[in-house]
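Appendix C reproduces, verbatim, an entry submitted by the partner laboratory led by Prof. M.T., so that reviewers can inspect both the input and the predicted structure.
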Amino acid sequence: MKTYRSLLLLVVCCMGVFAMAQKPEQPLPTKAQLAWHDLEFYWFIHFGPNTFTGKEWGHGDEPSEIFNPTELDTRQWARIAKASGAKGIILTAKHHDGFCLWPSEYSTHTVRESKWKNGRGDVVGDLAKACKEFGLKFGVYLSPWDRNHPKYGTAAYNDVYVNTMKELIRKYGPFFEFWWDGANGEGPNGKKQEYDFPRFEQTIRQLAPNTVVFSDIGPDVRWVGNEKGIAGETNWNYLDTAGFKRGVGSPPTDTLNQGNVNGANWIPAECDVSIRPGWFYHATEDDKVKSPEELFDLYLKSVGRGANFLLNVPPDQRGLIHEYDSASLVGFRKLLDENFKNDLVRGARAELHTTGSIFKRTKFSDGDPASFERINDFQNSRLWIKFNETKKVNCIVMQEAIQHGQHIISGEIELLNGSQPVKTIPFTTIGRKRIISFPAVEANAFNIIIKEAKSEPMISEVSAFLIDEKLVEKK
């Protein structure tokens, strides 16, 4: 009996040492993060006193009466967002100036003190209803910096901020995303605030566990490191956050842009950019609205690199999306629909080629992102797609089954005409979606070859298109 117990103890100890020696599993996205990934494209709306003063960062001393849109119509916002292909809207419920777009109990600088609707208006409430009506997700930006609140710069302000979050979540939720930035400047008393972000996170997790939280370091979604709307061509959904803070003290911008290949957390990138040079509406920028073609290029460099595309569309002083912005957005949606409607892979022959073997496979060519092909021996394998005839092609789209992690480090696309390669295109990460466009070639087949991966690659979808040559990604 003693010998048996000794042997058992030895086995248990050996198993413990073996387990400790194993490489830990890489982090996986939560259910809420997977739902966020699937949204791909949604709006930001910057609106408030800055819309009427012409400023980008208000000082908090602007009189509340200045906020007085004459034709505010949140249903118009939602209708145009829907027409543009956006899946949701994130509203600046409170920017740095401290002005609240709802009648908050915790501030005296709100729509309640404005002339708009004689102080009985509620932009947040109106937009929440409009988003629900048009089938859009709704989220809020709530600036921790408040240049108006008298308690800013004191311990009591953290209580104010927590109560404000609770008020928004309980009154207008559920939100698909809660947006923080790291701005931290002086309050009206000349003091800066020590934000209690752990408490802020705990509050959201308790009240809104299905809401993803954005900031420089997440915890759920990260800033992409620029305000140009462009993710890194190499873009990992992993990020190391230990030792970093929001705002000053955040990871370097190139790290935010590319992620960390072996990062400890699943924190994907969100690409924020404005349709105009500024974030708030300025009449002087009416002739500087990004064109449909420019928006398409940004889509390729955000969604097409595995990130999400957050496009700011600021209402004007009427409280309406300007006609120039609307026209560009509808044109953008048209470009997306027209250029990605004919998938050349549908109906094509799809096979997995390994050393000495050929297997018919359809899971990566069936149009269902939930199915996927696991490539066990990727170093000796290739995905092979053959068209029923020679076709012009200039765009390949690939997707990983990210519910099981992100694995692919590098690979190449080999386009064939007959049995001869006509073009070889290297790529790095894939992630949620990778769109690679190039000058059109005649091809009757193409291979996807994985060169390097962290573990067994899992490809959920491969598509091919002939897009307008003018829309091929601009470097």
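DSSP finds ten helices and 18 strands in the chain. Additional entries are available on request from the coordinating office.
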